[in-house]
Amino acid sequence: MPTHVALLRGINLGSRRRVSMTDLRGWLGELGCTGVRTFLQSGNVVLDSDEPPSTLGPLMEAGLAERAGFPIACVLRTVGELRAVVESDPFGDVATDGTRYLVSFRAAPAPPPTFAHADFEPERFHFDERESYFWLADGIRNSKLLAAAAKTDDGTATMRNWNTVTRLLTIAETNPNG
Q1: Mean pLDDT by 10 residues, the chain (178 residues)
Q2: Cystine design at 157: which of 37, 106, 130, 178 (Cβ 3.0–4.6 Å)?
């Protein structure tokens, strides 16, 4: 059965849109997913399903919205797709802190932004069709690059730091049954 990584957008941010990971694992089991594993409290899920991503994503979004009582956007990647994201690593030579190195995952391809690298130095970005990489040397809080990128987000992207991305790949490549 194929393994998928599900990145849920906008849950457990502060006191709003709360979802316990125990409930989330149970709900995904009710939707026919197996081997459901969560990482952290921010909507990182590794699961097994015979459904193709094009069917699984909408199935999860509808089922989770019904159970949680609010919409939850879900971005899916296969293990191979997540491995390709990690192997691509456009800033591995400069990104020295995995909490300041971010990847934005989009549900669908998007055109590259119109802004230029020089506008954001020393911050750096790299855009692929479905992922965007951001190296924020001075941190996330006051990043002008992230503010500019947020203006182009259509609500279907979700971001994870590099530490989380690489940990999710490790979890996805590990057999949950030992």
Answers
A1: 92 77 93 94 91 93 92 94 96 95 92 81 91 93 87 80 97 74
A2: 106
The model carries a pTM of: 0.91
Token pair of 177 as six digits: 């049954």
> CA-CA distance, 178 to 173, in Å (whole number)?
11
DSSP tally for the chain: helices H, then strands E? 5, 8
Residue type, 175: N
* Residue from 85, 81, 64, 66 nearest 11 by CA: 64
Q: How far apart are CA 47 and CA 76, in angstroms?
A: 10
* DSSP state string for 80-116: HHHHHHHHH-TTTTT---TTSEEEEEESS--PPPS--
- For residue 72, what is the domain's CATH number? 3.30.70.1280
Domain extent, residue 41, equals 3-80
| CA–CA gap between residue 154 and residue 123 (Å, rounded) | 22
Which helix (H) or strand (E) segment holds residue 76: the answer is strand 74-78
